[in-house]
């Protein structure tokens, strides 16, 4: 039976605490001395190997002079550390879940992205992402940081040992002119370039299939070998991580169903090439 990976909210809390310490330029040994802790305790908290209690998180944030919304987000994670799912609302400039998703993608052995209306995040061009966020009403001052994080996430597919990546896209994704014809033409060319990578499998679910397993929503499924898989769902102003087997099972079934319904990689590339000619 797969062992239990640290919960996404535990990893998100660890990342947030680590970044807060670095922001105030304190070494781990300095923080440990201030609180009377061992350095190994702080190290285990920052790597997600040990859950920090709300009281411990509060003490750390006091040392780091973290207040306001940032403090509240991290305290919520500490209080909800044992919950079966992690729901994040009221996004900051860059959502905590986006940072955690990037870390999970870097650890994954296989990633499945199912998209119904938009190009999956790991395959978006910067101009497509920027146009998408602008159209979705993201505050102009927040867009650049989110675009940069998304581009940073994509590096996982170009490393020396990238995870296997399967992108399922409804055909509608290829017809939606996010940013206009030029942006979409560049985006489709990028999809074709990505499809040439040995670790990437691009699969289009054609209109003729009708309803399918992902028609009611996009998802990201992350596999970790011997660890249990994790699912991430993203919506307008919220995100949700699922890691309990009963919650993840429907997405495993959806992935199996999409594998049967979608065009194979060669047919999908041919469809994209045909549509690219329409964008000029």
Automatic annotation (TrEMBL):
It comes from the Bacteria. The lineage of its organism: Bacteria, Bacillati, Actinomycetota, Actinomycetes, Pseudonocardiales. SUPFAM superfamilies: lambda repressor-like DNA-binding domains. This is Helix-turn-helix transcriptional regulator. PROSITE patterns: HTH_CROC1. Residues 17-71 form the HTH cro/C1-type domain. Gene3D superfamilies: lambda repressor-like DNA-binding domains. InterPro entries: Cro/C1-type_HTH, DUF5753, Lambda_DNA-bd_dom_sf.
């Amino acid at each position: 039976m797969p062992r239990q990976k640290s919960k996404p909210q535990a990893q998100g809390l660890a990342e947030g605490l680590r970044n807060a310490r670095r922001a105030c330029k304190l070494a781990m040994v300095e923080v440990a001395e201030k609180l009377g802790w061992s350095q190994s305790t702080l190290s285990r908290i920052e790597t997600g190997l040990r859950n920090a209690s709300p009281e411990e998180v509060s003490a750390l944030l006091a040392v780091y002079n973290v207040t306001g919304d940032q403090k509240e987000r991290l305290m919520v994670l500490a209080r909800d550390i044992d919950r079966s799912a992690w729901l994040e609302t009221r996004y900051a400039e860059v959502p905590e879940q986006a940072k955690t998703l990037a870390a999970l993608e870097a650890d994954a052995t296989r990633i499945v992205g199912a998209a119904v209306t938009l190009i999956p995040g790991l395959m978006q061009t910067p101009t497509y992402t920027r146009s998408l966020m602008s159209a979705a009403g993201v505050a102009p001052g927040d867009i650049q940081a989110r675009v940069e994080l998304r581009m940073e996430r994509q590096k996982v597919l170009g490393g020396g040992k990238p995870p296997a990546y399967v992108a399922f896209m409804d055909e509608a994704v290829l017809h939606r002119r996010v940013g206009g014809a030029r942006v979409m033409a560049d985006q489709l060319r990028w999809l074709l370039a990505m499809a040439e990578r040995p670790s990437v499998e691009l699969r289009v679910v054609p209109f003729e299939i009708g309803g399918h397993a992902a028609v009611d929503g996009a998802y990201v499924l992350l596999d970790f070998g011997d660890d249990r898989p994790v699912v991430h769902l993203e919506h307008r102003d919220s995100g949700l991580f699922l890691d309990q087997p009963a919650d993840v099972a429907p997405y495993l079934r959806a992935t199996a169903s999409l594998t049967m319904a979608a065009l194979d990689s060669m047919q999908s590339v041919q469809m994209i090439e045909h549509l690219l000619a329409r964008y000029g």
